[in-house]
Amino acid sequence: MKTVTVNAASGSYPVHIGRGLLSDPDLIAGLVPGMQVFLVSNETVGPLYSASLGKTLEKFETSGYELPDGERFKNLEYFSVLLDRLVDSGMHRDATILSLGGGVVSDIAGFAAACYQRGIAHIICPTTLLAQADAAIGGKTAINHEGGKNLVGAFHQPLAVVSDLATLDTLDDRHMRAGMAEIVKSALIADETFFTWLENHAGEVLMRDQQALIHAIESTCRIKARIVSEDEKESGPRALLNLGHSFAHAIETESDYRYLHGEAVAVGLLLAAEVAVRVGLAGAELVQRICNLNEKCGLPTGIEGLEPGKLAKRMALDKKVLSGKLTLVLPEKPGSAVLCDSFDPALPESVMREYCR
Ligand SMILES: NC(=O)c1ccc[n+]([C@@H]2O[C@H](COP(=O)([O-])OP(=O)(O)OC[C@H]3O[C@@H](n4cnc5c(N)ncnc54)[C@H](O)[C@@H]3O)[C@@H](O)[C@H]2O)c1
Ligand SMILES: [Zn+2]
């Protein structure tokens, strides 16, 4: 088992990564502070893996809820259902929410943990590559609003993250590929050596080679842990983790979630790099390297069936511009990205137009 520690200003916590961690009855039991556990999963993951937690949970007073499966249920309606269930099952202030699932489950369960009784403990057991490498770390919780993705949420760091690689055995290839996008993103922001490693080993990660998987997840967690430790509430460098995301959120919502988050991020990385080239921050070869890596990962390299004008409108709605000007994170070269708001406001739309098919 590998452990990465996140030292956030509001507290430190471990991210455990390894195979078979969910079926270790002592690991999670040792992390739960009180006697009550509320398990949040969804209708796909719950039946697959909640039994693995059986022995762990035996010692506790447990209840739980399985959400319907899908990004579209990460909303106010199901947030409210979760709160109702927490109240109905008599969860106290010292209860722990244990979330078991991908980023959708940990985002909504985390938001419920942030709000119930002004905040209760949350232990995240992420079961997708995207959640193990990214969504479970850093304490961002959210639900979607019709006006935009993740528009309502809170910062609430988990008590611990337990990433069991065995859960990835049942994850379909499309979601494995989508998870790679956040891994590529982190390398692009902060670690040139890791980016080069991905150019050579992405295939092994996708084939679920255990050593390659651990290296990819651990490296990405370390990057995120370091950035979150410097800037928990995103007043500075944490914003760099949004590389590609202004484009991605527009693509996800405009496509009515036909694009998975990671797929949209993959295109977003390319679009951000293209903008960086246009404003003179990056050389054209950066676009080519990202494009090649996306292809290697089986990720999209263009926008299918969406209108650039509508996407640009969505970007203007994004929460990052509600306060004024659109600020983008732009990559300079592998391992380095910057915030930029000095570009022609028409540039994002014209770049998207070129990538629309
Ligand atoms: N909080 C953050 O910092 C952060 C960061 C990145 C993404 N996110 C959010 O994460 C969400 C995307 O997360 P995701 O990609 O994990 O999607 P997801 O949670 O929708 O999971 C993808 C699909 O895989 C299924 N699944 C999950 N684990 C499985 C397993 N082990 N075996 C078989 N099927 C399994 C799920 O039921 C779902 O159908 C988005 O809502 C995004 O906004 C949050
Ligand atoms: Zn993301």
Name some characteristics of this structure:
single chain; 357 residues; alpha/beta; Rossmann fold; Dehydroquinate synthase-like, alpha domain; 2 domains; seven-stranded mixed sheet; two-stranded antiparallel sheet; 14 helices; binds nicotinamide-adenine-dinucleotide; binds zinc ion
Tell me about this structure.
This protein has 357 residues and is an alpha/beta fold. The protein has 2 domains: 169 residues, Rossmann fold, CATH 3.40.50.1970; 183 residues, Up-down Bundle (Dehydroquinate synthase-like, alpha domain), CATH 1.20.1090.10. Helix content is 45%, strand content 20%. It is built from 14 helices and 11 strands. The strands form 3 sheets. A 7-stranded mixed β-sheet has the order 1-2-9-6-5-3-4. Strands 7-8 form a two-stranded antiparallel ribbon. Strands 10-11 form a two-stranded antiparallel ribbon. The protein is globular and about 60 Å long. The protein starts with a strand and ends with a helix. The mean pLDDT is 96. The structure holds nicotinamide-adenine-dinucleotide and zinc ion. Nicotinamide-adenine-dinucleotide binds next to α2, α5, α6, α7 and α11. Nicotinamide-adenine-dinucleotide (NAD) binds next to α2, α5, α6, α7 and α11.
> Hetero groups bound?
nicotinamide-adenine-dinucleotide, zinc ion
Our count of domains comes out at: 2
Q: Kindly identify the CATH topology of the largest domain.
A: Dehydroquinate synthase-like, alpha domain
> What's the CATH superfamily of the largest domain, by name?
Dehydroquinate synthase-like - alpha domain
Q: Report the uncertain regions.
A: none
| Integer average pLDDT | 96
Q: Report how far the terminal alpha carbons are from each other.
A: 44 Å
Largest sheet entry: 7 strands, mixed
Q: Label the CATH architecture of the largest domain.
A: Up-down Bundle
The number of E-state strands comes to: 11
Order of helices and strands: EEHEHHEHEHEHEEEHHHHHHHEEH
Please state the structural category. Answer: alpha/beta
Q: Class of the largest domain in CATH?
A: Mainly Alpha
Radius of gyration: 20 Å
Strand order of the largest sheet: 1-2-9-6-5-3-4
